[in-house]
Write a structure and sequence with these properties.
The protein is α/β, with parallel strands linked by helices. Helix content is about 35%, strand content about 20%. It has five helices and seven strands; from the N terminus they run ββαββαβαβαβα. Strands 1-3-4-2-5-6-7 form a seven-stranded mixed beta sheet, with helices on both faces. α4 links the parallel β6 (about 135-140) and β7 (about 175). The structure holds guanosine-5'-triphosphate and magnesium ion (MG). Magnesium ion (MG) binds near residues 36, 58, 59 and 75. Guanosine-5'-triphosphate binds near residues 35, 53, 177 and 179.
């Protein structure tokens, strides 16, 4: 799939303010500064679409983008932002968990994790919550351009081994780099295929 058009739709403070759920939707989630907004810009081929920052905590609302006038991508605020107060963390938690559980058109959550780091506790516990909540997700390893060639497979292997301690099967995971446009084809192919499921399910609704 090629992305021909990409535009910002709106920023929403809660799930009930999000756009009409009439198109399939994918959301980007992960720790603050992991590269969610950069990934969206790379995927869409529009460098300035989502705002990027060296400072964590840039994205505070649910930001909807429409690609090819056919599917939404929601850029979510990051978690694990060290400077956030307890109150802010609780607010984030409520907003995000509500969005994930109630967003009817959400097809898959892309959970971004930094390929350089060892598995982080908050990512692992978040994945467990997704599994319990029966939310499909795909892990995207980010910033792979910052690793040496041999380090990437070693880190992915370490991640897989950690996951296998609590998972029967390793969830789908794709190495990416927004700098090198790595993983773009794979993720767009995944989206194209998953979009058909949304349209099929509508066709079968009586
Ligand atoms: P929040 O909105 O704060 O949660 O952050 P975010 O996850 O949206 O991260 P963002 O895309 O703003 O990127 C954070 C920093 O990482 C920026 O300085 C980016 O330039 C850098 N970055 C993101 N992706 C990549 C990548 O693939 N490679 C490299 N080298 N740097 C990246
Ligand atoms: Mg962001």
């Amino acid at each position: 799939m090629k992305v021909h058009t990409a535009r910002f739709i709106c920023s929403s403070p809660s799930v009930d303010k999000c756009p009409n759920p009439s198109l399939p939707e994918y959301a980007l989630i992960g720790r603050s500064n992991v590269g969610k907004s950069s990934f969206l810009n790379m995927l869409s081929g529009h460098k300035g679409l989502a705002k990027i920052s060296g400072k964590p905590g840039k994205t505070r609302l649910i930001n909807h983008f429409l690609l090819n006038e056919d599917f939404y991508i929601a850029d979510l605020p990051g978690y694990g932002f060290a400077k956030a107060s307890k109150k802010e963390v609780a607010k984030w938690d409520l907003m995000i968990r509500n969005y994930i559980l109630k967003r009817a058109n959400l097809m898959t959550l892309f959970l971004l994790v930094d390929s350089r780091l060892e598995p982080q506790k908050n990512d692992l516990s978040f994945m467990e919550w997704l599994a319990i909540s029966r939310i499909p997700f795909v892990i995207l390893f980010t910033k792979t351009d910052k690793l040496r060639k041999t380090q990437l497979p070693a880190n992915i292997d370490r991640y897989e081994r950690t996951l296998l301690q609590s998972w029967e099967e390793v969830p789908l995971h794709i190495p990416t780099s927004s700098l090198a446009a790595k993983g773009k084809e794979e993720v767009l192919a995944y989206i194209a295929e998953t979009n058909t499921l949304f349209h099929d399910s509508l066709r079968h609704t009586p």
